[in-house]
Write a structure and sequence with these properties.
The chain is an alpha/beta fold. The protein folds into three domains: 40-61 and 121-394, no CATH class; 406-480, no CATH class; 485-579. It is 65% helix and 7% strand. The protein has helices at 17-23, 27-30, 36-55, 66-80, 103-115, 119-144, 147-158, 161-167, 172-193, 197-218, 221-237, 248-269, 273-287, 306-314, 318-326, 331-341, 343-358, 374-394, 400-424, 429-447, 453-474, 476-482, 486-499, 514-523, 536-541, 559-563, and strands spanning 87-90, 93-96, 505-509, 529-534, 544-550, 565-571, 574-579. A hairpin with a 2-residue loop joins strand 6 (565-571) and strand 7 (574-579). It is globular and about 80 Å long.
Length: 580
């Protein structure tokens, strides 16, 4: 890769004036602004970003109650060999889990079968969803503009705060986002990527497959999110005639064949599931803030319209940068002119706003509901960055400020990795990797600080990823000792190993954290949990002589009960006692 100044795209270009007229895009977006060598460099940076996220999947421990709920459900599926009805553990034992269809849990169970009951295996389906989304984002960028734009869009996607920090988690939302994005991507390919009618039909059928898998992951919301975006595009563009190109008969047959069999089997196995799932979970929970009838978890009530604030946060920093650039000068007019002239860009815009538009009136919302919008946001953002690069290179301007920001982010990542090692008390591959990537970004940004914008901008994005990595590893100890029981179980294991009495049973007082269910078989398999959620008297009656509870529940113990216990370990918000 050369840092010498050169005319953007002078090495090679695939665009022509006819292409630009057809696409309705400025030449700064539609041409190749990276040389072949630079494209390989950016592709390598994308692989580095994915590798860093893969290595840090184990940090922090699975978080109660959301992540561990799905992990323990998959764990129980394997142990019980019941793959029809997911189960959830409560203080009353295992109960039917009617809140979600099972596809994400099936994928997690498959990961456990391959890699064991580990934190990394629980989060692997989310990571795979991110990796596949990176591929889709890159492909869309190539079709809209060029290989350079596709690679840049992939880096933009990976450097969104919501993608790196929250997508590779053990939740249904990243998996749902993959299927919804897959439906949009397949439709995009059918409309704009191919001209052969047979190939177009297969892309449309692929969209139906994705929607069927989405229905098997989280229900009707997959179809609704896609339908909102598609309806917006059809209404604004007026291209209703294109509906005649869709192979409706075969497509709907594939869609229904994917999800209907399980729904029927689940209703037969546990009568009442269909009514609860469609009425309570998919209608009343959307329109109401009342928790009556909610069996699982708690409602996350927010003011109406809060989803747009979450949208800005999940797409950070590109959301703020985009808003800042559009509201200054006449850039917003140029942006809307491109949208009006280019159906592909209009389709991406409708895709990007479909999720927040649908959830605007809802009060039960979470930031993860935005994930399906981020691939389109990444491509649109990359188009804006490509335009910025074109302007900088027309002026032959350098971008040392971006290099300084990249060095700053790399430094934060390096510090976060060091703190992860220090607070964790042992050398982890994740922290070491983050230290290495932080140091690499500082050196690379310094080495290419006088390079042209097309070179230094991708380095700045990976610097941002190094910063996120530092947050993950630096916050490992905090989250692992406050929102998970893994650390306190390790303290129990150490105490059992050093003091004997392996037959003494364990109890969890005043709560039933799923993390205890998930981590106990691998950390202290010899120590059974005989009571969860009860008080000290109930735990002793069940035969327990070791007890863990949260700091907030300490006040529920009477002075007499505390006098019967010996504090053995205090980690974060957890306390571990032995009976005297």
């Amino acid at each position: 890769m050369s840092s010498a100044p050169q005319s953007a795209g002078s090495a090679e270009t695939n665009s022509t004036p006819a292409d630009e007229l057809r696409c309705g895009l400025p030449s700064s977006i539609s041409r190749e602004f990276l040389s072949l060598r630079e494209r390989w460099w950016v592709a390598g940076l994308i692989l580095v970003a994915l590798a860093v996220r893969l290595v840090t999947l184990g940090q922090p421990a699975l978080v109660d109650p959301s992540e561990t709920r799905f992990a323990t459900s998959a764990q129980q599926m394997i142990e019980s060999n019941n793959y029809i009805t997911p189960k959830i553990h409560t203080s009353q034992g295992w109960e039917n889990y009617w809140a979600k269809p099972p596809l994400h849990i099936w994928l997690t169970a498959a990961s456990f079968r391959l890699f064991g009951y580990t934190t990394e295996a629980a989060r692997l389906p989310g990571f795979v969803s991110v990796a596949l989304s990176v591929t889709m984002v890159s492909a869309i960028g190539v079709i809209v503009g060029s290989w350079s734009l596709g690679l840049l869009a992939a880096l933009v996607y990976m450097s969104c705060g919501g993608v790196f920090l929250f997508s590779a988690v053990s939740l249904t939302d990243p998996t749902l986002a993959l299927w919804v994005s897959g439906a949009f991507f397949s439709t995009f390919m059918a409309l704009f990527g191919v001209t052969d009618p047979k190939k177009r039909d297969w892309w449309f059928r692929a969209a139906f497959v994705a929607l069927g898998l989405g229905f098997l992951t989280k229900g009707p919301v997959a179809v609704v999110l896609f339908g909102v975006g598609a309806a917006l595009w059809l209404g604004i563009s007026g291209r209703w005639s294109r509906l005649r190109e869709v192979p409706w008969r075969s497509g709907l047959g594939i869609f229904l064949a994917i999800w209907i069999p399980w729904y029927i089997a689940a209703e037969i196995a546990t009568p009442g599931f269909i009514r609860y799932f469609f009425v309570q979970e998919n209608f009343l929970r959307f329109v109401s803030s009342d928790e009556s009838g909610v069996r699982y978890g708690t409602l996350h009530t927010q003011p109406r319209g809060m989803i747009w604030i979450m949208f800005i946060g999940v797409a950070f920093p590109w959301s703020l940068i985009g808003i800042g650039r559009l509201v200054t000068g006449s850039r917003w007019r140029k942006a809307f002119a491109i949208v009006r002239q280019n159906e592909r860009v209009l389709f991406l815009g409708c895709w990007a706003v479909a999720s927040p538009f649908f959830f605007t009136a809802a009060r039960q919302v979470l930031p993860t509901y935005i994930f399906s919008a981020l691939p389109a946001v990444a491509v649109l953002t990359a188009m804006g960055i490509a335009s910025f690069i074109g302007v900088r290179e027309e002026r032959r301007a350098r971008s040392p400020g971006i290099a300084r920001v990249a060095m700053l982010f790399g430094t934060f990542g390096f510090i976060g990795g060091l703190y992860g090692l220090y607070s964790g008390g042992f050398y982890t591959s994740g922290s070491l990797t983050v230290i290495a990537i932080g140091l690499f970004m500082v050196l690379a940004a310094n080495r290419f600080r006088q390079s042209r914008a097309a070179v230094i901008v991708p380095i700045g994005m990976v610097g941002l990823i190094a910063f996120y990595s530092g947050i993950v590893t630096g916050g490992d100890n905090y989250w692992s000792t406050r929102r998970s029981a893994k650390s306190i179980l390790e303290a129990v294991h150490k105490d059992v190993s050093s003091n004997g009495e392996p037959s003494a049973a364990l109890a969890v007082l005043y709560g039933s954290p799923h993390s205890v269910i998930f981590y106990r078989p691998t950390i202290i398999p010899e120590l059974p949990v005989v009571s969860m959620g009860g008080d000290l008297a109930q735990a002793r009656a069940a035969g327990a002589n070791r007890f863990i509870l949260k700091e907030g529940d300490m006040a529920r113990l009477t002075p007499e009960e505390l006098g019967q216990l010996e504090l053995r370990s205090s980690i974060g918000k957890w306390r571990y006692y032995r009976g005297k």
